[in-house]
Each structure stands twice: as C-alpha cells, then as structure tokens.
Design a protein that fits this description.
The complex is a heterodimer.
Chain A lengths: L6 E7 L6 E8 L3 H12 L7 E6 L11 H5 L23
Antiparallel strand pairs in A: 1-2, 1-3
Chain B lengths: L19 H13 L12 H20 L1 H5 L8 H26 L5 H10 L15 H19 L8 H29 L3 H20 L11 H6 L7 H19 L9 E3 L4 E3 L5 H11 L3 H14 L1 H21 L1
Antiparallel strand pairs in B: 1-2
Helix pairs in contact in B: 2-4, 4-7, 6-7, 6-8, 6-10
The chains are: A alpha+beta, B mainly alpha.
Chain lengths: 94, 331
C-alpha cells in the first residue's frame, strides 16, 4: 500500500480573463496543502492569479485507443469551417 | 541542473518482438512523424524503463544539487546575493518536483524513486559530489554547471515523451537566470582584488573538468545512444553537446581574464572548434561509483532530511484525516 499522499493535478489561470490551464501535478495530504504546494511549485514567478487543484484519481480521461472512434467523424466535415465557402472578393463584411 | 548521460548505463534497451512488433512499428512511426507520446499511449517497455531511469536520475540530480549551493546560503556576501541564492536553490527543488511528477506518469511511485535515491541504488549527476569550498564556487556552479545543464536540457524540450518535454520547457525558462547570476558572481570577483581573482581562478580550476564530464562518457564508449536517438529521447550525442559547451564557454573565460586549466586547449582553425586535452575518465567513473569527495555526505544529508521530515508528513496526514472525519460528521 502506497504511503504517498494523493496526487493532485494543478491548473493555473495565468492572467485575469484567461482560462485555467493544466501545468502539472503534485502530492499533498489534502486540498489546502495542494493549493499551497502548487503556489510554491508552479507560481514562483507570478505565473498565475488563480489555482485549481483536483485529485488525479477523480479525472476521467478518454482512451487513446478510442481516439479514432471519437474524433474521426469530424474529419470530413470541413463545411464547419468558414474557409469552406468561396465568396466573391468584391463582397465585403462576410 | 542536469543528470549526465547515464540514461541507459549498462542496460541495453531490448527491441520488442512478437505480437508487440506491430504496435512497436506504429509507435516508431509516430515518433518519426514527431508526434508526442503521452502517458496512456502504448509504448515499448524498454522506452518506458529508459525514461523512468533518465527522468528520475534527472530529478534526483536537482534535489541533491540543492546541497552544494545550500552550503553557502548563510554565508552569501550580501543580502542581494543571499536572496538570489535562495531563489536559485528553491528553483532546483521545484525542478525536482516537475521531474518526479513527469516520471510518475510512467507508472513509478514517488516513494519508490525517493527510496532508490536514499538507498544509494539510484544515480544522480556526479558533479554534485564535489565540495563548494569558497564563495567563488557558487559563481562557478552557476556559470559552468548550469551552463552545461542548459546545453544538455534544451534538446530535451523536444523529447518524444510529452510530460518530460513539457517539464523541460519550464525548467529551461528558469535555468537561464541561474547561469547569468553565476557569471555575474565570477565577473565581480574577476574585477575585484588580487585575492578575489585568485579565488575565481581556483574555482574554475576545480569545476572545469567535472563540468566537462557532466556530458557523460565519450561517444565511443557510450554505445546506447543510438536507441535513445531513434526514440527521440536524445537529440545530440554526448560529445556533440560537450563540444558546443566548450566552444561557448572558452571565450567567456577569456572575457573574465581567467585561464582554463588545460594546457592542451587550443583553437582549431580547420574545424572552427576548441580542442581540449584528454579527459580523466577514471575520475569520472570513480565519482559515479561512489568514491567522489562528497558522495557519502550528500546521501547522508538526504537521508537525514527525509528522516527529520517524517513527523511533519505524519502530522499533515493525521490533520487531513481529522478534517475529513469532521467534514463527514457535519454532513
């Protein structure tokens, strides 16, 4: 049985207005310690204005083996992008 | 800081065979296409083991690397130097944490890696088994040891294994300040009194060759580089990186007015490289095997720190458990 404290994934909001982004992970006895450790490990140079931590065990991830089944159906739907449509050059504001 | 090319020392990665052959071919194709491998992706066991060994050795080097510099925190000559040194040592600790996390994604537990370090089973960079005798050593470490580390680490930012590459990007960003503060210490001493210049020269004399050895055994001796290159764990050979380091560092020593302790050192016009004298590989292997000046002291310091922290870890766990129970009673 592992004596390690639980693993937490750390997400940092680098500036007000931006989304939180995954930066790494760390061990902590509880959530409060995870936040404090994340401060020391990942924001020594003002890299963030907000921290999220979540127990790694609580993250549910897609299976890389199923990546094709999940994402392949979008591949041939290029009409979802604006560049799919040709518009005469003289037409403006489209 | 960086663990030298110990990655596959004495352990030849075995190419997979049989039914994993097709998976291995697809894996290699992904690497050839410069795709990143992520923790949940299929990977050959030898790739996993090579990375666990290399990343954990790298992490241990960061942690042990705090010791020679920590030695001078209480004796830094000014408050500014002291604040800088504390920040640098704290960075090394942080680098160790990024790397342990990256290694854990490959399936090894943190406590297992710590146990390997404390038992003496794991290797770390031989450079940290040399003592820091004077303040100038702190300058020489930043300038030379971190300089060599940067040379080694920048190519790893493009390593095929995603978590290692990402940790390395973060580390390289922080490492540049380490080298510059070291050079600034050397520059201040080199422009100082006769005694200060002598101290800077003495530090260069003692740290030059160990820094050169940080790049690991020569290519002729390091027969495992090829597989790591194919897997894009390694991008340049030990000797290539060593040569790059020598070429950029010799002019910096000239600027400082210091002499590289190698009377065979010369500029080779034909190849446009500096050529150095013979490296004392016996010393390298002796330090690696545990006979360096400080091997025992370093491990004892880590063991003492781990033992002294035991009650803190237990208290934090007990507190967390009590809070959990309190929360569940309140619910």
């Amino acid at each position: 049985m592992s004596q390690d404290w639980p693993l937490y994934e750390v997400f940092i909001r680098s500036r007000s207005g931006l989304e939180h982004k995954h930066v790494g992970s760390l061990h902590a006895a509880d959530a409060r310690m995870a936040i404090e450790h994340a401060r020391d490990v990942y924001t020594r140079r003002q890299e963030g204005v907000s921290i999220w931590v979540v127990r790694s065990a609580d993250i549910i991830a897609s299976d890389p083996e199923e990546a094709d089944a999940l994402f392949e159906p979008a591949r041939d739907k290029v009409y979802r992008h604006p560049t799919f449509y040709s518009i005469p050059e003289e037409v403006k504001n489209l | 800081m960086y663990t030298q090319a110990l990655d596959t020392h004495g352990k030849e990665p075995v190419p997979p065979a049989g039914e994993t052959g097709a998976l291995a071919a697809r894996f290699q194709a992904r690497i050839d296409a410069d795709e990143k491998i992520e923790p949940k992706d299929w990977m050959p066991d030898a790739y996993r083991q090579t990375l666990i060994r290399q990343i954990s050795q790298h992490a241990h080097s960061e942690i042990v690397g705090m010791l020679p510099e920590g030695n001078w925190i209480t004796r830094a000559p000014t408050l500014r130097r002291k604040a800088v040194l504390i920040a640098k040592v704290q960075d090394e600790g942080g680098h160790g944490m990024y790397l342990y996390s990256a290694a854990e994604t490959l399936g090894i537990a943190r406590e297992e890696m710590i146990a390997q370090l404390l038992s003496g089973a794991a290797k770390y960079s031989s450079i940290f088994n040399y003592p820091t005798l004077t303040w100038a050593d702190i300058g020489a470490i930043g300038w030379l040891v971190d300089g060599a580390a940067i040379m080694n680490q920048i190519p790893i930012c493009r390593c095929s294994f995603g978590p290692y590459a990402r940790a390395m990007v973060r580390i390289c960003k922080e490492e540049s300040f380490h080298q510059r503060q070291g050079f600034e210490i050397m520059l201040t001493l080199a422009q100082g009194s006769h005694a200060q210049r002598a101290m800077a020269q003495d530090a260069l004399n003692r740290w030059w060759w160990p820094s050169i050895m940080m790049f690991g055994p020569s290519d002729a001796e390091s027969k495992h580089t090829a597989q790591s290159m194919r897997w894009k764990i390694k991008r340049f050979s030990n000797d290539e990186l060593r040569q790059k380091f020598i070429d950029v560092t010799v002019p910096q020593a000239h600027f400082l007015g210091l002499t590289i302790p190698d009377h065979e050192l010369r500029w080779d016009e034909a190849s446009q490289h500096y050529r150095i004298g013979a490296i004392d590989w016996d010393e390298f292997h002796a330090v690696l095997k545990g006979s360096g000046p400080c091997n025992r002291e370093r491990l004892e310091a880590r063991r003492a720190a781990h033992a002294a922290g035991q009650w803190v870890r237990e208290a934090a766990s007990a507190h967390a458990e009590k809070e959990r129970q309190r929360a569940s009673r309140a619910a």
